[in-house]
Amino acid sequence: LNRRLAEFGTTIFAEMSALALSTGSINLGQGFPDTDGPEEIREAAVRALRDGRGNQYPPGPGVPELRAAIAGHQQRYYGLGYDPDSEVLVTAGATEAVAAALLALLEPGDEVIALEPYYDSYAAGIALAGGVRVPVTLRPADGSYHLDLDELRAAVTPRTRLILLNTPHNPTGTVLTREELAAIAELACERDLLVVTDEVYEHLVFDGEHIPVACFPGMRERTVSISSAGKTFSFTGWKVGWVTGAPELVTAVRSAKQYLTYVSAGPFQHAVAEALRLPDSYFTALREDLRGKRDLLVDGLTEAGFAVYRPAGTYFVTTDIRPLGFDDGFAFCRALPERCGVVAVPTAVFYDHREQGAPFVRFAFCKRRSVLSEASARLKALG
Ligand code: PMP
Ligand code: GLN
């Protein structure tokens, strides 16, 4: 393994999902739903396969129907107008979109500000691109996480090229507010920074609202927005993601993408085009279902003795294990399957400042209610 990647071993998700399988535990570690997305969308994928739509290389930027549907979705929910031909790119999931954006936009040595804790592929993507990560830590207080805007401003240097945002935020469940986003936008304009924003949980907001940072004045031309069908339609295995942004930025990301995967998932692209045109009631039902599951797991974890950070969005909940008498999330998560048959993820893996994340553990609640209840019962037996 070369020096750029040496610090990144096996992802925590692979390690913890393997542990869940080998111990027969309930897997609340890796974030994937245990029920698949809509039947009609699965049927749409089967139809595309049968009709021979997408079985051979689709067009590099993505199939036209999907690009039109992505543009339509940005317009419908956020009033953002994008040209499907020059301002939309289909990727192999949001993961490839993030990596391709970093590879396309960074020069070696450029600094990238990211809100810590952050999704694990960001650090690896920045490293692959030869960039330098500059974490700005979200601070836990009063049951939620807070962004210190002064700290963010102070993190900008002459070498800063871009801010990598994620809202709703994995793993903390934080949804950046209009005021916070306005301040970030102002900073980006003032210091002439690009923003790459990962909004894969855009439809999973329970408190507050999701506002794309691209909506703020001066931001459309400096923002690369990223989302994915994995979370919104519960098809994490399909790996259909996308990028929207100004033509020069999307062209740049496409340049990197075409040498990473060139194209992907032809038939699934056709199915996701249909998914993005589902009525509002689909998106509302998804959110309300997950809101109920959030409440169920938050209550279960609270009764089990964890201190819980109630997430405003995403399908993850972060807990503090200190009230249970533990302080090392890694040791806790490695022992948990044997002790009570539940798998979770130590939040420290999402930190550069590992000590900041030490006593925190993340649980996923995108699971059937019966599974969440059983997991809660098992965790209660811990205490
Ligand atoms: N970004 C965030 C914040 C995520 O939590 C995930 C994982 N589910 C991804 C990106 C990856 O998305 P995809 O599976 O579409 O590559
Ligand atoms: N995004 C999901 C999570 O945070 C899983 C992603 C993965 O397995 N790489 O759990």
Describe this structure in a few short sentences.
The protein has 383 residues and is of the alpha/beta class.
How does this model look, in words?
The chain is an alpha/beta fold and 383 residues long. It folds into 2 domains: 119 residues, Aspartate Aminotransferase, domain 1; 238 residues, Type I PLP-dependent aspartate aminotransferase-like (Major domain) (Aspartate Aminotransferase, domain 2, 3-Layer(aba) Sandwich), CATH 3.40.640.10. 43% of the residues lie in helices and 17% in strands. The protein has 14 helices and 15 strands. A 7-stranded mixed beta sheet has the order 2-10-9-8-7-3-4, sandwiched between helices. Strand 3, helix 5 and strand 4 form a beta-alpha-beta unit. The chain is globular, with a radius of gyration of 20 Å. The termini are far apart. The mean pLDDT is 96. Bound molecules: 4'-deoxy-4'-aminopyridoxal-5'-phosphate (PMP) and glutamine. Glutamine (GLN) binds next to loops. This is Pyridoxal phosphate-dependent aminotransferase.
Task: Please give a handful of descriptors for the protein shown.
383 residues; alpha/beta; Aspartate Aminotransferase, domain 1; Aspartate Aminotransferase, domain 2; 2 domains; 7-stranded mixed sheet; 4-stranded antiparallel sheet; 15 strands; binds 4'-deoxy-4'-aminopyridoxal-5'-phosphate; binds glutamine
